[in-house]
Predict the 3D structure of the following.
Amino acid sequence: MRNGNRQPAAQSNKLFFLISFMLISMAGFTQTISGVVTDADKKPISKVSVHVKGTNRTEVTDETGKFSIAASGTEVLVFSYVGYLIQEVPINGRSSVNVSMSIDAGNMESIVVTALGIKRQPRELGYSTTTANVEELQKNRTNNVMASLEGKVAGLDITPPSAGPASSTKIRLRGQSGFNGTDNAPLLVINGLPISQGANSANGGGGGSDGLSRDGGDNLLMINPDDIESMTVLKGATAAALYGARASNGAIIITTKSGTRNTGIGVELTSGVNMDEVLDLTDFQYEYGQGDNSTATPLKGSRPGLNGVSAVNTGQFGWGERYDGKPTVQFDGVSRPYSPNKNRVKDFYNTGMTYTNSVAFSTGGPKGSARVAYSDLRADGITPGNEYHRKIFNLGLNQNLSDKLTVTVNLNYTNDENKNAPQVGIQGQNYYNFLVRMSPVIPLSAFEEHAATPAGIETPTNSFATTVLNPYFYIPRQFFVDRGDRLLATATVKYQFFKWLYLQGRVNSNFSATSSEFNNPTGGGGFGTANQQLYTDATLQYYNGTYNINQNQNRDMNYDFILGGNHDFGDFSVDLGFSGNRRNTLGRGVNANSSAFVTKDIYTIGNGSQFGQGQGYSKTQTNSLFGWAQLGWKNMVFLNVTGRNDWFSLLNEGYDSYFYPSVSGSFVFSELIKDKFSWLNYGKLRASWADVGQLNNVGYASFDITYSYSTNKYLNRTIGNVSGNIANPKITPYSLQEKEIGLELKMFHSRVTMDMAVYQKKTTDQILSVPISAASGGNSVNQNLATLQNKGFEFFLDVTPYRTRNFSWSSAINAAYNISEVLDLAGQTRITRVDWYNGGASNEFIGKQVYEVGKPIAQIAARTYKRNDKGQILISKTGQLIDNGTDVLFGSALPTWTGGWNNTFSFKKLSLLVQIDGKAGGKMISGTALNGLRQGHSKASLVGRREGENGVVFPGVFDADPTNPNAGLLNGSTPAATVAVFGRVFYTDYRGKQIADPFVFKSDYAKLRNITLSYDFSSLIGSRVKFVKGLQLAASCRNVAILKKYVQDIDPEQIASSGDDRAGYEAVALPTTRTWGLNLNVKF
Amino acid sequence: MKRLLIATTALVFMAGCNKDFKEINTNPLAIQKINDPGMLLTNIERNTAVAGDWAAESTIIQQFVLPYNLGATLGYQFNDNAPGLSGAPWGVYTGVLRTTQSLIDYVKSDTARPNLYNMARIWRAYHYMWLVDHYGDVPYSEAELGQKEGVFYPKYDKGAAIYDDLHKEIKEATDALNPAKDNNSKFDIFVPANATAATEITLWKRLGYSLLLRLGMRYSKVDQAKAKSIVQEAYNGGVMQSNADNIYVKNTTDAGAPDVNYTNGRMGGVRGTNPYTYHVAEPLVTTLKNLGDPRLKFMVAYYSPLQSTAPNVTNPDTISSHQFGFPVGYQVGGNWKTTSPGYRAPTGTGESFSQLNYNVVANSTTPSVIISNAQTKLLLAEAAVRNWLPAGAKTAKEYYEEGIIASMDEYSIFPNTAGALPTATEKAAYLTRPGVAFNETDALMLINTQYWIECFNNGHEGWSNWRRSGFPVLSPNLFNNNLNGGFIRRFIYPINEQTINPENYQAAVASLGGDLLTTRVFWDKP
């Protein structure tokens, strides 16, 4: 189980030598021309294409600007690079050619891939986009590529839950656009294929692929960072407006590699290893041991075995005596020293290991290029038994079939298996829950040795028998496996009728076949003590436990065409496009479960004697027609109008057609004033508006009246039922309108770059399930209601304060502020509960999430202390807490500020990245703090039992309210409370009365997120081993240090869920980790 | 290639409409068409709303007491509104009425199933009577239109207007039942699965006209002419003749064995948690004892010591002299020991008073009698007293005595009564006892007291008939002064309805003249 599987590394070594051998035999041109390409400041430029004119020989410059290419002395070299003027340099018999490239003033910006894969110059855009630095994602790897983007892009709020190596991430652009239950993640567009992020988060009682609060990952896990060619973040609705009803949360456009033309054959190997070091941030008390102090004597608590205190019943309590090392009985009847076992978290969890190996072959000729890549990722999570194995095969191909016809194909196939993803965010089969809630007096070895009774039943360790479960019982007996085969495929055919007119057709498919399988083991305490016996039926002697299997197939097909053209008419440029799209989705699933097993510990359907099963199906079609028109004037002013109409099969006729327009404009004012202000290289003002939408929460085929039959016959007759809820035939997608203005500046030879945006977006007509009069035949129905607003600004500044030939320092700051406000709920409703952390299926600890009109979204709500007019906390005559009787809001769980500071230092071949990032303005409610206090483990629980203290005397005053039967005094006076209460009794009231004051913290933090050091060995090796074109080694450390936080005992990012309803709710997620990584990249 | 591209483009372009959407948005796994709409008849018969809650209707008419005020049990026993109790009858809208309406919509235009259609109409009318009797004005003309027409907040209709339409519906539907048309007995749980159409339709005609008789009698206080006219329509149509015509939901299999999947839902609460907290009320126990009623042993039992296992005791003490009903208007705890007229020291876990006979009337297999021959006979007796029956009808005394005997014989379908049913001698002796023996002067009191006893297991019908007739004369529950010495005459609208459908609710309250427990429905005149 804890074997770090090193096999893939060995395989990769073999591969390495095999390929090396092949390439050595291929190497060798006789005459080589070399040189260095620099810019006007003599700074080397990498990736400049060096092409021998009239041939298919092309090379690119390395990071130091160097190139070497085979050519004869009479040929001509062509140097080209985006943003620079193309230069043709005759060789004239030289063996060394050095070139200085000059900036193309009219085209100094890099190209941006926008919606539908349309490439644009930044000056044309009237909205905000950010292109991610792909190289950084590759050097500083995370299993979910999106986690690496945390803190890098202004307005992109990434929250990776702490839920194992195959976790989803929470991605929000410019806040949360819709209420909980809608898809609030940006649209992912992978090679033109739009897909949802599909976060299958662990959401408390539900969520995850099995509904057992284990993170089921997301669609970004299908992407290997090495395969990414470019990644553009389209932040607002206008940028994504061409996606119509999928545009409301912005979009992330990912293009994978398909080789580069005119580059010849290339091979690239990448090997990486990451080591996850568990961060145990608990700072518990180690003064008092296991025991109880709720009984009358002795006052300060007893250890097990004294005064009737049971070792089993107090396993989870630290209310005992001062540690003294004397033998004391424990849950298993064995006496062990009464002293704490510190570092329990570190001792239990493993060091996580992740090995990534990938190989890519590419080729590029004058008419086309191709790249094929395979990557293998094996991760052993920190949780014992948690293993994640992912294989990705990626193919990119583009070819000119004729002068006018181009074909592009991209395939991305993923096969993955995630074993035993940890349960997080709820009690139960959650190992961390056990570790932080059981008294540290019991060593882990005791739990391991005596996990089960001889009969195979979980040995009771504590009196929270059904919720605090011994991991050592479950590790060998429970399995949970998610498997998936997923294919993303895109084929594009483009025909260029004329230079100014093309027609493109595209088919793309997102196909997945997934399964999940799990059991609940026989004899586990999670069944409840009453059902914990092995036999559910004394006569049949069946074994208890459960087995479940789910299998699903999903297909999402898109067919589209684009008829596009552009032409210049004097000072004017026109770019027009007309497009259509058809999207078909098809989902099928079956699930089966069994229980009451005939043979013990065999979890299959066949071994069961009681069964359940189900079948699911859904099918949708969305048809769309859309187009755009862009008008430019003097390459300085641009106006862009788009419109899209979507038709939805999910909606009723008459309510199924929606039009989504956008308007945006840009004004490159630097063109007007460049003569006066030569330091200003580029200045642009932009403004945009869009009206888009989203269709969520409308079930497949929900309008039909359908029937079902009762399982059991009555008087030998089959009972027919009218099934399903009442549907609202008039339901429509929600609508989102967004306005934005922005400013972009580049100054001082682009050493200072600045981008600012201010936006406001309003979401209306959200689909909410609203109670209706039962006399209508139903209890609730979906209606279009409620309005939510988000507004904020984004700021990005990139400065290169220092740059010489050998050394440069560039420093980029990004910051974003977003504030939401619920403007309206249903009808007269002022407040609505989103989730209840102490109730429902999850039955966790404390608090709720609510929405209240006039307040930011995602408020943490709970009771508070009862206070008098002077604000003094009131205490009952028994010295105990009194709650205020109604929920109060403690603040929004969502941060208002997000940002990062990225510094890159380059010294010759050495590059150092230092990233600091943070969030501020949000609140969190900590279940760990509550449990630590009420169970006597946290340092806060020491109050009331130190020397001279006889219990908790809370600093409050007696309640004099005569209507309160527990009032202290009835004469109206309010003397200070003086009654001492046993700690366990006193602190338990916090949960019982749901008083949350001590457990709500600022979730703000600042972290030294990442340090990456990389060295480019290419030049060192290049001179000796000709066939190696590049060699780079990067060492990184992620989560280096928490610079600032407010919550105790945990990392503020130790959140279990990537969902919206449990934002800000902390309860027993995995401990966070510090990741040490080493990454080697070799190019041939 | 170029042509292919253009062709593909055209194909996608053509898809810019929505012509296949209906087909796409139809789930092939879902059952769009039920095997036979008759299966919905099985459903609505099985799920008929019959008796109401022991703690509600049966408590109002002083047959049952839950004397523990534990907050959660605060309710009608303590003259207080209990949202759970008040809202319960409203549940038929999302349950049986929704299914009934679906069935009606399904077969309305099916010329092959006129009988099924008309049976469903009768069942719909039965349930709207249930609603009007509980609340007064309720949604009717706009009800059940959520799915069909998107009416989520229906208006309320006046109770009198609804009754007028129910009269028409029951009459029309019953008249239209035709033995030459469809036979639904394989779905109809009131008849054997292989019954002929003639058998089924005969039964349903008697059921329909007996229901019409019940509806007609409801007018006795407000419009005697109308009452008489409807009673005559019902009589002429042909009401129930014998106990073989009784309409009831079995809670056993055909063979009479318990059916674990279909038990009597009304008994869940009283048999489930803390059964020792439930008692039979003093007025009923005293009446039965005074009359020497042979039905007492089926209705009342004394369990000693009181305990949670009482429902499992198969031979409880049912001796008449050992029975003591719990006095109405008192609460266990507080000063009830000193103020209660019949205070008895507790034994075991609970108080020393009689309880439901869990073996018979409160068994999980106890049948739910919807409309009985006994009720019908007693209603005819009153109609005869009022001289509303046409010539040729029997006398009031004859109907009265037949009604009592029918009520006693009805226990033959109850569990654990074999060998214990009243003998002919016992029945004859009972009919001559003071307080039972018929006399013209006390006829209405005698008849309706018997109706009250007959309806022990049907709180809804017992309460409605008591509100209509005023008999037996009960002393008001004076636990507090909430009702000003009156009785609960109506249920308060569900709390949800008040907040969800406020405009229509307010209009209904204005029309009713209040939304109180003491507000009267239209046929219940002081």
